Amino acid sequence: ALVWGTSVKHCPQNVGKEHVLADEDVVQILKKIMKVYAAVLVCLCMFAAESWSLPRRSDDSDPNVAVIQQLVSRIDALEAGLEAEKVRTKQLEDENGRRVAFAAYMTQTAGVAASRGAIIPFSGVLTNIGHAYDPTTSAFTAPYDGAYMFFVQADISADYRDFLLERNGSALVYCHNDGSLRRIACGSVFSLKAGDRVTVVQHSTQGVLDPGRESVFSGFRIH
């Protein structure tokens, strides 16, 4: 897993945009489809015009054969392009339906004392696209197989030491206060299977976590 961490304040922005089918994407796809139909109409008009303008010869029983063949070739190419656009549209729609992103913060009115093994409560939901995060348990459950990015930051007392990012109860990332700083921040990319559960768990035995919107657990599905 790619792991990174820092002891300074950081707020993740614009999560998960690569895989979002935005309204403007749909508009562009529809414009392309309309262009295909417009091109077919143009071809039909060209065929009609050329049919009237072609000279007839006594030894030519059907002077429009060449024009018809060209028109058929053009229509075949346009149909192939249209089918490709349909496939691409379906892929984008499928991906759009699998968007997952969340962010939650600590809502307590008083500091949360260190308690090794306890899940840190992030019960205030900022966003929950896909509804994979449960604020009552402070756990994220992967709805699909894939790669997911997680980030957690928390204000702490100077003597608070560390917490963990865990998958199904096993620690994957160790987030540590390496001095007397008042904040811990870290993140990681996890490869998850559908049903895998990710939580932030206390490891420190001393100190206090400060609640509020500056203490946030967030994540999103990459692909």
From TrEMBL:
Indicate the segments forming the C1q domain, all copies: 95-223
Q: Which residues form a coiled coil?
A: 68-95
Q: What is the lineage of its organism?
A: Eukaryota, Metazoa, Spiralia, Lophotrochozoa, Mollusca
What is the superkingdom listed in this entry's lineage?
Eukaryota
Q: Name the GO cellular-component terms.
A: extracellular region
UniProt subcellular location: Secreted
**What keywords tag this UniProt record?**
Coiled coil, Secreted
Give the protein's recorded name: C1q domain-containing protein
Species assigned in the record: Batillaria attramentaria
| PROSITE patterns, alphabetized | C1Q
Query: According to its UniProt record, where is this protein mainly located?
Result: secreted
